[in-house]
Design brief:
By secondary structure, the chain is mainly α. It has one domain. 69% of the residues lie in helices and 0% in strands. The chain contains three helices and no strands. Helix 1 packs across helix 2. The two termini are 29 Å apart. The relative contact order is 0.07.
C-alpha cells in the first residue's frame, strides 16, 4: 500500500481524529474511507449524468460524443 503525506488545517485533523476514536480506528483508515466514499459518489453521479445526457441524444447520427466531451473538466 502506498503512503502519502497530506496537509490540512488542525481543526479538520482534530475532526478526523475524533472520528477515528469514535470508530475505534485510525487516521489512515478514516481518510481512506472518506476518499472511497467521495470517489464512489462522484462516479455514480457522473454515470447518472452520462445516462441522462446519452438518453437525450438517442438514435443514430446524434451528437452524443460532443455532449460527453462538453461535460469533461478543462485542463
Amino acid at each position: 500500500m502506498a503512503k502519502v503525506m497530506v496537509s490540512m488545517p488542525a481543526e479538520l485533523l482534530a475532526e478526523v481524529d475524533a472520528e477515528a476514536r469514535r470508530l475505534g480506528s485510525n487516521r489512515s483508515a478514516v481518510l481512506r474511507g472518506f476518499a472511497e466514499t467521495a470517489l464512489s459518489s462522484r462516479r455514480s453521479d457522473r454515470a447518472r449524468a452520462m445516462g441522462k445526457l446519452l438518453g437525450a441524444a438517442a438514435g443514430h447520427g446524434g451528437n452524443a460524443a460532443e455532449r460527453v466531451k462538453a461535460t469533461r473538466p478543462g485542463p
